[in-house]
Design goal:
With 514 residues, the chain is an all-alpha fold. 74% of the residues lie in helices and 0% in strands.
């Protein structure tokens, strides 16, 4: 039996809006005698289900077990065709491809002149919207047709098409190399994480420089500039140069501001660019500009001209709530951020089929931090357990690490001594097994190992010692990121000064944030 959370057909049907379901039924009825078609009956049955149940399908007698796989595949295809025809899913890229298809059909019928006329118009639209890959395909088909269309002069036309093809090919190669570099840098991030030493930083920078294609900036179009900024952004993230991250994420967003017609054609990259810019502003603690960027993004997405679909909604959801939470963390306003939790959880549930588990776990960690900041340690522990007990988090060892460390602190603050010993042992064992430890993590291992033998009257002195050791790494180029996950220094200061951790962070925020 298919896994209810993994059955693609059920997930697709669940994602359909009321209007999309209505259009699908109209589309099916247009096909002819389909009112009682099995795939329509299967659609109706699946639409009524709250979770996928193969036994219920078989009991309905709509289809036998042997036929079910083929019928589901057919239904899946018909839904996609219906969605393809929906005006809401039409964009310039799809329209150009449709024209290319029409031109190909006309060419195959030998109607060369009509085919060339459509291709010339489609090519103009493609170039206007910087769709150079499709433009190159159009030019290649034009060359094929011109080589057979002998009723007009070929001499100047051949030169014209050859030059066009060469120019588009060069631009596409540069864009491809830049997109490859961006993807490879992202892969390094997932596999190895951020640079942890001068040697690693030099290795990443050498790799980046060697893979960067030669180009003349003034000859780059929108698409090539976009990939160029992405590649620079990932390089900056890897070497933890947050000011450079801000520089290139700003260029990314500014590129759309300079070419507003590209926002509706590339809405995913518009949201992503703003997401990275907001993340960078959080890293450099620029609260006022962060609020301005978030408000501008909110206004743009609300425009009628901005595309509306489930994918964009889920991307904006991640960006919006991450940024709102980060703003509260910047200010140390944990109490003020609690109101976000209910809406956040509802949206996680609503978008769970469209966002990956890592993003969900990051949200759980941030919720845990909110509750830790207001002193609700039991709620904090509840959300950290969701991360710690998750067996699928293979790519985010850092998140698992700091979730465990924060869990120890929450148990300690809550006075849950009967469970603290187990937490200490589990966290210590996990840290020891980590692939690559930062110095901050090594200091935590030493402290955790010692904590079991420390008497209560010795705690403050030990907190002071750990605080002094960790302060060395607060602005260290390769260690400072650890404090973005968990502000251990502020927590230690709260214990030393006998103040709430939120108060310590708020006092610092007044001096640091802009």
């Amino acid at each position: 039996m298919a896994n209810p959370t993994k059955d693609n057909l059920f997930v697709l049907i669940s994602s359909l809006s009321k209007s999309e379901k209505r259009q699908f039924k109209l589309y099916v009825n247009r096909l002819g005698d389909n009112e009682d078609a099995k795939f329509l009956q299967l659609f109706t049955l699946l639409d009524k289900m709250k979770s996928y149940d193969e036994d219920e399908i078989l009991k309905s007698k709509i289809v036998t077990k042997q036929q079910l796989s083929n019928l589901k595949a057919h239904l899946y295809k018909q839904i996609l065709i219906s969605l393809r025809m929906n005006p809401i899913n039409q964009n310039i890229r799809i329209q150009i491809r449709e024209q290319l298809d029409f031109a190909t059909i006309l060419y195959q019928k030998g109607l060369y002149k009509q085919s060339l006329k459509i291709l010339d118009k489609a090519k103009g639209i493609a170039l206007e919207h910087d769709e150079k890959n499709i433009a190159f395909e159009i030019v290649e088909l034009e060359k094929v047709i011109e080589s057979q269309y002998i009723t007009r002069s070929i001499a100047s036309r051949a030169d014209e098409l050859t030059i066009e093809a060469m120019k588009l090919s060069k631009q596409n190669v540069i864009a491809s190399k830049l997109s490859n570099l961006s993807l490879q840098l992202y892969s390094i991030m997932l596999k190895s994480g951020y640079a942890k030493s001068d040697a690693e930083m030099q290795e990443i920078t050498t790799y980046f420089n060697n893979k960067m294609p030669k180009y003349q900036y003034e000859n780059l179009g929108f698409r090539e500039k976009l990939w160029l900024y992405k590649a620079h952004l990932w390089h900056s993230f890897l070497i933890q140069d947050f000011l450079s991250c801000y520089k290139y994420s700003s260029k990314w967003v500014a590129l759309f501001d300079e070419n507003p017609q590209m926002i509706s054609l590339n809405p995913v990259w518009y949201i992503k660019g703003n997401s990275y810019l907001l993340e960078c502003l959080y890293l450099i603690k620029h609260k006022s500009y962060m609020k301005d960027v978030l408000e501008q993004l909110k206004q743009t997405i609300a425009l009628d001209s901005f595309p509306k679909n489930d994918n964009l909604s889920s991307l904006y959801f991640i960006c919006f709530y991450n940024s709102k939470l980060n703003l509260h963390f910047l200010e140390g306003d944990f109490e003020g951020g609690i109101y976000l939790v209910d809406d956040l959880l509802k949206n996680i549930k609503k978008n769970e089929d469209r966002i990956d588990e890592h993003h969900i776990m990051v949200f759980y960690y941030k919720i845990a931090c909110l509750y830790f900041g207001v002193g609700d340690n039991k709620k904090c522990i509840e959300y950290l357990k969701k991360i710690i007990e998750n067996k699928n988090l293979t790519m985010r060892e850092d998140l698992l690490c700091f979730a465990r460390v924060l869990s120890v602190l929450a148990h300690f603050d809550a006075g849950m001594d009967y469970r603290l010993e187990v937490q200490l042992k589990n966290t210590y064992d996990f840290l020891i097994k980590m692939n690559e430890l930062h110095e901050v993590q090594r200091e935590m291992i030493k402290f955790l190992k010692k904590l079991e033998t420390i008497y209560p009257n010795q705690l403050k002195a030990e907190f002071i010692k750990l605080h002094e050791r960790l302060l060395i790494y607060e602005n260290h180029p390769y260690e400072k990121r650890a404090f973005l996950y968990l502000d251990l220094i502020s927590w230690l200061e709260s214990k030393i000064q006998n103040k709430p951790v939120a108060q310590i962070i708020q006092e610092k925020a007044k001096k640091l944030i802009r």
